[in-house]
Amino acid sequence: MVRYGRYTLVELRPTEAQRDLLLQVIDVTLPVTLHATVGDALRHVLRRSGYRLCSGPETGALDALPLPAAHYRLGPMVLRDALLTLTGPAWNLHADEGARVVCVTPAGMPAEPVMPLPTPVGDADAPSETFPLAEEAQP
C-alpha cells in the first residue's frame, strides 16, 4: 500500500483482470451490419482484449452462423462470459495464454440421443384418462 493524495491508499498489485485477461470487463456494441456472423462478433469483441481468434475449420463454421440480434450489444460483462454467450452451448472455449489465442471446439454430443416425445393420436373410441380434483380442506 502506498498513500496517494491525502486520504487515498492504493494497493500496488495488479488487479485480477490484469492478471487473467479473460476476466476483464467489456461493454461492446457491435456495428450494425446486414450480414454479421458469430465469427465477426468474436473478432470484434477480442479486438482490444489482447487475444486473437485462432483459425481453423471450427472458426470457419462460426463464420457461417448468423449473429442473433440479441448479441449486437454485450455487457457490461466479463470477456469470458461474452465469448461463451456468442458461441453458445454447442461450443467449448479454449484459451492459450502463452500465445494469447482463443479457440473454439464443438461440444461433445450427449451420451444418449434425445428422443422426441410421441405425439398423442386422437382416438375417439379410446377413453381419456381423468384425474380426481383436489378437494379444498377447511380447518
Automatic annotation (TrEMBL):
<protein>
    <submittedName>
        <fullName>Uncharacterized protein</fullName>
    </submittedName>
</protein>
<feature type="region of interest" description="Disordered">
    <location>
        <begin position="119"/>
        <end position="139"/>
    </location>
</feature>
<dbReference type="InterPro" id="IPR022260">
    <property type="entry name" value="Integr_conj_element_PilL"/>
</dbReference>
